[in-house]
Amino acid sequence: MTVIGERTAYISGLGQSAVGRNLGRTEMSLTVEAITNAVADAGLRLSDIDGLVTYPTGGSGTAHGGFGGPSPAAVQDALGLELDFYSGSSDGAAQLQALVNACMAIATGLARHVVVFRTVTEATAQGGGGRRGIGAGTAAVDGAFQYILPFGAVSAACWLAPLARYHMDTFGLAREQLGQLAVVSRANAQLNPRALMRGRTLTLDDYLESRMIATPLCLFDCDIPCDGATALVVSHVDTVADCPHVPVQVNALGTASRGRPSWDQWEDLATFPGRGPAAHMWERTELTAADVDSAHIYDGFSIITTLWLEALGFCGTGEAGAFLDGGKRISRDGELPLNTDGGQLSGGRLHGFGHLHEAALQLRGDAGDRQLPTQPEVSVVTNGAGSTVGCALLTRGLT
Amino acid sequence: MTARTSVGSVLPLRVKPFLDADNTAFWTGGADGRLMIHRCRGCGTWFHPPAPVCRACGSLEVGAEQASGRGVVASYTVNVQPWIPGAEPYIIAWVELAEQPNLRLTTNLVDIEGEDVVLGSPVEVVFEQHPDGDVWYPLFRPVDGSGK
Question: Which ipTM value was assigned to this complex?
Answer without folding.
Answer: 0.96
